[in-house]
Write a structure and sequence with these properties.
The protein is an alpha/beta fold. The protein has a single domain, classed as 3-Layer(aba) Sandwich (Rossmann fold), CATH 3.40.50.300. It contains 11 helices and 10 strands. A hairpin with a 2-residue loop joins strand 9 and strand 10. It is globular. The two termini are 32 Å apart.
């Protein structure tokens, strides 16, 4: 059973109070959307969850283990992984080699034959097996996103954070990524999806978390959130500002 328990997370950068006592829980393979206007704190929250930065206060427990003070590689070993808005593949390595890195680096006792077999299973799952010997730098933007998802599958993480998986992706590949997200979730993984593609968020996710200036202002079903006046004012009513935005949260958080 997957249990992620986030309690009272706060984060300050100098005089800027970016997160203000954020609390939520995930139980089981939920598919959750994390939304909010630029500067809401989404990136900061993600960076705390994956161990990149430490909170000023609050705790994060994953399956009973406290992870908010661990290093990123320790968080990955504990069962939480993430992708990035800007893909971070090993561009001068092949697609297959990219998939081998996470399993070998974490050293869970696999032998090379087992790792190779798992990597091929992941490539087949993502329909990338025909590209296994291609260098990662030759992949399209959408294929890079799939490769990042594949590296997370090699980690066998219980909780997967997908940061803007549809950004800059051709519409045909967007549909493919959409379906794979559903398949990964159906395979028993909890997913936190961050995206400005609101149609995808509302279609994929059965639960939404809404941040606004560091406060968690809503936690509920898409229908509930869509009709929440506070959310409408803070986020959904700001479509003009959100269109095309990809890095605003990073700048403010």
């Amino acid at each position: 059973m997957i249990d992620l328990v986030v309690t009272g997370l706060t984060k300050r950068f100098g005089g800027l109070h970016v997160l203000k006592g954020v609390s939520f829980e995930i139980h089981g393979p939920e598919l959750i959307g994390l939304i909010g206007p630029n500067g809401a704190g989404k990136t900061t929250l993600t960076n705390i969850l994956d161990g990149a930065i430490k909170p000023n206060s609050g705790t994060v427990y994953l399956n009973g283990e406290r992870i908010d003070q661990l290093q990123s590689f320790e968080v990955a070993r504990a069962g939480l992984g993430r992708t990035f808005q800007v893909t971070r593949s090993f561009r001068r390595m092949t697609v297959l080699e990219n998939l081998l890195v996470p399993a070998l680096a974490l050293g869970h006792g696999h032998n090379r034959a087992e790792v190779d077999e798992k990597a091929m299973e992941v490539l087949e799952f993502l329909t990338l097996e025909h590209l296994r010997n291609e260098y990662a730098q030759s992949l399209s933007g959408g294929q890079q996103k799939l490769l990042e998802l594949g590296r997370l599958l090699m980690l066998d993480a219980d909780v997967i954070i997908l940061d803007e998986p549809f950004a800059g992706v051709h519409p045909s590949l967007m549909e493919i990524i959409y379906r794979y997200i559903e398949r990964v979730n159906e395979a028993g993984k909890a997913i936190i999806l961050i995206s400005h593609q609101m149609d995808s968020i509302f279609a994929l996710c059965k639960r939404l978390l809404v941040l606004n200036y560091g406060d968690l202002i809503a936690d509920g079903t898409p229908d509930t959130v869509k009709n929440d006046p506070t959310v409408i004012e803070a986020y959904l009513g700001a479509d003009d500002d959100e269109q095309g935005a990809t890095n605003g949260d990073q700048a403010a958080s």
